[in-house]
Amino acid sequence: MMKTVQRGALIVIEGVDRSGKSTQCKKLVESLISQNIKAQLMNFPDRSNLTGKLINEYLINSDCKLNDRAIHLLFSANRWENVEKMNTLLYGGTTLVVDRYSYSGIAFSAAKGGMDMNWLKQAENGLPKPDLVFLLTLNHEEAAKRVGFGEERYENEAMQKKVSNIFSQLAKEEDNWRVIEASDSIESLQAILLGHTLDVIARVAKQELKSL
Ligand code: DGP
Ligand code: NA
Ligand code: NA
């Protein structure tokens, strides 16, 4: 007899720093669990593993010098370190809500310049492909007002504006993306995200995961 796949959905939230991704990810997981849907939060970069510790040092210490391609590959390796865990959870029926993914990898590296887009995407090829990507958009002035902005390496206006433009470009090229204006209240944003997420969970339950 054929085994029926009943997998969870891979949901990613992307956006510039301080756009509210982490809050929305957390709330989305809580909302799903309260409806008896198996769900788990994942966060990239995952600062708890070996590559994550190096990445954390790079982000918090502006004196830390590291070649642009080397750090690009480290961020990518940090996602690869989690691939078995992701597949196990997804095929075990758990929906994953992921705070940043490969698209951050592409956007932040592309914003630095000097690296070919195809080269940047290559490191992500083969990772599980999201069933849905939310892009939270927020103008720089609002993001910069939010608590903690400016503490880490990339949190400056020039970088964030470039990243924001590259995300918008990716949203046009990639499928499964939803662009959401993030200046609304936490609750109204959450309602929109939850609605789309529930649709996708139902739609992909019996589909194979695709790869980037
Ligand atoms: P977060 O903890 O999600 O706020 O991410 C920390 C910072 O690292 C943030 O400025 C975004 C950036 N970042 C996230 N993923 C990647 C990546 O894959 N590559 C690069 N270069 N930067 C990333
Ligand atoms: Na950040
Ligand atoms: Na993250």
TrEMBL record:
The keyword Kinase applies. The keyword Transferase applies. Residues 13-190 form the Thymidylate kinase-like domain. SUPFAM superfamilies: P-loop containing nucleoside triphosphate hydrolases. Gene3D superfamilies: P-loop containing nucleotide triphosphate hydrolases. GO terms for cellular component: cytosol; mitochondrion; nucleus. Signal peptide: none annotated. PANTHER family: THYMIDYLATE KINASE. This is Thymidylate kinase. It comes from Dendroctonus ponderosae (Mountain pine beetle).
